[in-house]
Amino acid sequence: MRRLSPLLALLFVTSAHAETLDCALIKSTAHPLELTFDWTHTAAGKDPLAVPMRRQIDRKADETIEYEFFSPDKFVRRTLNGAGFRLQVRTAGEPESQSRVSTYSIDVTKDYFALGKPFDFNEIVKGPDGAIIADMNTSVSFDGAVDVEVGGCTYPLTKIIESSHGVVRGKAGSNRAEIWYSRDLKTSLYTRNEDGDGSVIEFRARDISTSFKPVE
Questions:
Q1: The model's pTM
Q2: Which domains does the chain have, with CATH numbers?
Q3: Can you list the positions of beta strands (E) in the chain?
């Protein structure tokens, strides 16, 4: 039970509005959704910073597009393939031609996450000019599952652990992420990222909706 404790608060989440979700619809891969999170950053020697943020998810059969933003005009847009690997990233105001593009050492058309077995990969992120922005090695493992209710619907979540090290923008670093991932929603409901310097960022889902204004 101890390994589930970071997620237990999700079991008691109640919707912040009166929307009644169609659970079968929201679990399909065809309908966009929006999640509201409690985002918390804790750095050594500093008080935790806690703010709300949102994530919009456009699910398709062969790709998923995520928008993460703290205000309507400031967002990060990620394109993931059908197996959940990040392919492109850009921020608000940037055209698609300015996207950062990821390539991998493994065949990312294979759904490694569905197999539930440990695997490793190298990811290289390049800018639009071809310059390398990041070169990271990542080990992925799995550590249990749990059913969680958010917004009146129950979702089975898988705990994924990603340990990474490498170079980002010329600086060496490392990161360990615990990700509670929903295959139905094609996104996570809880994430804990711990950097090599000891700082921790947590995303904890508070609400879910199918009625929202798309960011783009």
A1: 0.88
A2: 2-209 (2.40.360)
A3: 33-42, 49-59, 63-71, 74-81, 86-91, 100-104, 119-126, 132-150, 153-168, 171-182, 187-195, 200-209
